[in-house]
Structure formats: structure tokens, C-alpha cells
Design goal:
The protein has 2 helices and 6 strands. It is α+β, with helices and mostly antiparallel strands. About 15% of the residues lie in helices and about 40% in strands. The protein has one domain (about 5-140): Hotdog Thioesterase (Thiol Ester Dehydrase, Chain A), CATH 3.10.129. The mean pLDDT is about 95. It starts with a helix and ends in a 16-residue tail after the last strand. A 6-stranded antiparallel beta sheet has the order 1-2-4-5-6-3, with helices on one face.
């Protein structure tokens, strides 16, 4: 599954879409995605100057987005659904992730009950664990975007 197919499933867009490709998927069971980490990503300007590393919270977000692809891939009305991250357990960060690395994002479903899911997630670089966690999420109906109200600003001549 390439980036165009991923964008048909997830609502995320640059700079917050953190999955570049899906290389394996077993519906409702497991998924493997890839994230190519590049120096031109916005967080490297400040995290950290002279020693750029991908923030751990964004590694977990990349894992959660990959899990979202797994959960929404076979949902017929997925354009009206969102997968919301509801919890994280057992998070461990084992090694830094730097520009030039390719994150392999692997998730396995532990439990799924209607709209609630728990998955074991592992991010690796070159076969070495960079981060791991158990993540929980829920599938919800997407609310329509709120309409902008006209402002009550008066212009004086």
C-alpha cells in the first residue's frame, strides 16, 4: 500500500502523516508499515540542534497511525470514522531514531471488541528495537467540521 492508498484511509496530512508505506497487512490481526525518517522534517530544527533525533512521542504516533490503517482498511464508511488514541502502556524507548533511518512499524492486535482495540506495537531500525508499547484506541464517528461563524467585527471609516 503506497502513500496515496494510505491517504485514502487516514485523515492525517503533512506534516503529521507519519506512515509512508504498508508492506504487510492481515486484516484485523497485524500490520507492518514503514516510515522514512529525513532531516527535512520540521521537528529536527529543534530536537536537537547538532544531534537530531526523532521525538519518542512521534514514534508512538507513527505506530498508532499504522494501527489506524489496520483498523480502517476494511471499514466501508471509513471516511466517516476516526481512530482515536486512548492509551499507552509499557512504553519503552530503546535507541534513538535519526535522519536516514527507516522505521519498521509492526502492530499485532491483542484484543478487539466492537470499536475498542488493544495492540502490541514495535518500531525497529535495521532489526533493532527503537520503541515498543501496548496502545489502545477506539473507532468513533467523525463529526462534520465546525462551520466558521462570521465575526462581529465592525469596520469604522
Amino acid at each position: 500500500m503506497d502513500i496515496n492508498e494510505i491517504q485514502k484511509i487516514l485523515p492525517h496530512r503533512y506534516p503529521f502523516l507519519l506512515v509512508d508505506r504498508i508492506v504487510e497487512i492481515e486484516p484485523r490481526k497485524r500490520i507492518v508499515g514503514l516510515k522514512n525518517v529525513t532531516i527535512n522534517e520540521p521537528w529536527f530544527a529543534g530536537h536537537f540542534p547538532g544531534y537530531p533525533i526523532m521525538p519518542g512521542v512521534l514514534i508512538v504516533e507513527a505506530l498508532a497511525q499504522t494501527g489506524g490503517v489496520l483498523l480502517l482498511a476494511d471499514v466501508p464508511d471509513r471516511d466517516r470514522k476516526l481512530v482515536l488514541f486512548t492509551g499507552i502502556d509499557e512504553a519503552k524507548f530503546r535507541r534513538p531514531v535519526a535522519p536516514g533511518d527507516q522505521l519498521r512499524l509492526e502492530l499485532e492486535v491483542l484484543t478487539v471488541r466492537r470499536t475498542v482495540c488493544k495492540m502490541r506495537a514495535t518500531a525497529t531500525v535495521d532489526g533493532r528495537v527503537a520503541a515498543e508499547a501496548v496502545i489502545m484506541c477506539v473507532i468513533v464517528d467523525r463529526e462534520p467540521a465546525p462551520r466558521a461563524e462570521p465575526s462581529a467585527v465592525s469596520v469604522q471609516p
